[in-house]
Structure formats: C-alpha cells, structure tokens
Amino acid sequence: MRLTDDERSMLDGEQGEAVQAAMDLLVRYGEVLGAERLVDTDNVCGANIFGQRQMMLCGAADPDAVFSEFSLDSPKPVEITPMKAQSYQLIGPMDTQHWQVQGLSQEAHDAIESSESYSARHGIHLMNTCTPYQVGNVPVKGEHCAWMESSAVVYVNSVLGARTNVEGRESTAAAMLTGKIPYWGYHLDSNRFGSHLVEVAEPVSSSLDWGLLGYYVGELVQEGVPVLDGIAEVPNLVKLKHFGAAAASSGGVEMYHIPGTTVEARTVDEAFGPRRPVQTLRYGARERRQTYEQLNHTARDSDVDLVMIGCPHATLSQIRDVCRLVQGRKVHPDSALWVFTPRAIRQVAEQNGYAQILRDAGALLMSDTCPAIGQFLPKGTRVIATDSAKQVHYLPAIMKVQGWFGTTEECVNSALTGTWQGSL
What we know:
Layout: H1 5-11, H2 17-33, E1 38-40, E2 44-46, H3 52-58, H4 63-72, E3 87-89, H5 106-121, E4 124-125, E5 146-147, H6 150-160, H7 169-178, E6 180-182, E7 196-200, H8 207-221, E8 226-229, H9 237-250, H10 268-272, E9 279-283, H11 285-295, E10 306-309, H12 316-326, E11 337-341, H13 343-352, H14 354-361, E12 364-367, H15 371-374, E13 383-386, H16 389-399, E14 402-405, H17 408-417
Parallel strand pairs: 2-3, 2-5, 3-4, 7-8, 7-9, 10-11, 10-13, 11-12, 13-14
Antiparallel strand pairs: 1-6
Helix pairs in contact: 1-2, 2-7, 6-9, 8-9, 8-11, 9-16, 12-14, 12-17
C-alpha cells in the first residue's frame, strides 16, 4: 500500500501511539482488501466504542486498555487521544430513559453510561441511531465516509451519493483517530455502476411494498448493485429507508439505482455505464406474494405480545402516523407497543405532544437502541409484529420469537386488539 508522508508519520508513531496503532490496523486491513492507498475521510459513524459486553467483561479495566484491545486490535494498551475525524456513535444497547423497561441491571446501565461518557470526552458525537442522516449527518454527493450499519450505508451511497463501504467496529475506530480509510469498494467510480436490472411490473406505493421489493431484490442480487426500472411514483425518505434496509438484510446490498430518483443515474443506461446487466429480474404479483409469505414464515399464533415500530429508526412523520392510529384508544393489556426513534427526534416528539399521546395509549416512545441490537423484549414475549422487513428478518432469529410483517396500521391495530389480522 502506498502511503503519503503524513500517513507514514502516523505509522511511524510520530503522532502518538494510538494513531500509530490505528494506522497499523488500517494498513493491514487495506492490504487484505487489495487497496492500493488510503483516502481522507471526515465523516465516520461507528458503534458504541466498546460495546456493553466488552465493558461488562472488563469490569473496572482502564477504558484506554479496552479501546486498545477491542477497537484497535492493539497487543498493548495505548493512551487514546481525541478523534481526528468528525466521529459519530451509531445505535447502542440502551435507552437512557427506559433502560429498566429493557430489563437492564444497574451494573449494565452504569457500564454503558461510562462507555458513552468516555466516547464523548474523546470527541465522538453521541447520535445513538441507525439513521444519522435523519438527525444532521447528511453527507454530500462524492463525500468519502466510513460508516457502519448496513441500512445507513445503502441509504447514503444510493440516495445521497456519498461513498462508503459497510465498515466494522475496528476500521471505524481507526478512521476516527486518523481521518483515513482504505480506498476500495464503493469509494471507486468503477464499482458504483449497476449489476442487475430489476423490471418492476407490480405497483410499489406503500412502505410495505418497498420493504417487500427490497427483500426480494436483496435475496437475488446479494452483494450486487440493482437498478430498478418501472418505478412510477417517486418514493419518499421512509420508503427508500425501508427498501434499502430490507435489501441489505436479505442480501448484502450496499448501493442501488432508481433512475431519475437516486442521484447518480438519470437513466437505466447511465446507471449501468460501461457494464451490461449480469441478470434481468422481474418483480410482479407472484414475486410480491412469495416474498410476503417468506417474511411471515415464522408466524403461527395470532396473539401478539409486542408491536415494534421504528426499524430503521422512525421519522417524526412515522411517529405522527402511529399517534393518529392510537389517539383515544388503549394498547391491549396483553400486548405492548414500542416505537423507536433517534433521541433528537424523540425530543421534538415530546414538544409536539406525540410522546404523551403514546403514553396515554399505553405505548412507549424509545430511543438510542432497538430490540435486535439491545436484545430485549417484554418478559414472556412469544409473538411480535412489525412494519419493518429488516426487523422481522432478524428478531425471530436473534430472540427466538414468531414475527408478523405488515403495514403500520395492521401492526398498530394488533397492539390495540392483541390479535394479528393482517393480510396482503
């Protein structure tokens, strides 16, 4: 790997041991990837820098030592200096308001708070969301980033035209300290052209429709770059969010093109550039039905214990929609309704009275985490319902529950009645 003079000085330890360890990690990482050089980045989104489990395992260990081992792969503890790049913390394991509802112990709560305090002191912005683009971190077209979180990566690559691969805890930690990331994958022009043509023959209008389409596409193209042809209506942020999250869950999609909507292709030809489609797929009524049945394959019982809205984290408009469905009504005593959103949006929802509407209905507005990341559910939960294809893909596998997938209205109604009545 070719290094600039500045990068060489980092590797030689002239900018401190923490930066040296970070650069050593990036060089090793880049060489494995086949990257010829690094690229500057001033936009890094990573995980809670230690993670709940590492903090609990290490107990009272020096946090610099924990960071060195788990985030820099350093054989010895080094003193961690402030972050060089603009750095952001993604979704974490704990809601600071409702951590007791999650079932967290005081010890776990204190360890996570300590980890966040450490991150903040080192210049990491505590956004605590899987959708940083909803609360201020909106990279521009062509900007090189280093982001974790598959649903966020596919959104910023495709909708915004920024450039990032799906990074991990270690590579983002190293990028925070150095302002560098290997120049490969979706940082390169040549890798951003389409690979598969998807002819959309079925109308795609609701968020459910976009989740179904995303899940179908991701499963078939895997890590390819799908190009959607035949989209009649311009989708909004929520629909694109659900599409990308679903495609990144069933496959490994990190970028897609909707000619005339996403920023790097006005036409199908422009989306493919010098490439030809390796495969043409058709999405019609049969594919839609099969995908719906696949997403609901774990569900057998109609009694619903938990309805989860907000994966990826809900927008203010989604919270408003849920409020309109529950206002003046009550969640069934045998069920629960949890809505998840970024902390910054929860604050606005409080000001708007939305959070109070949810509380009056017996629901909760939560932030900073989700049941899949935090691995928590109400005690005795056997059946969940969600309007997120991503969440119904992961949560049954992670938490060993049954999962129903449907529209937001169907999900909220199941929380109010305690019974699933949704259908395609």
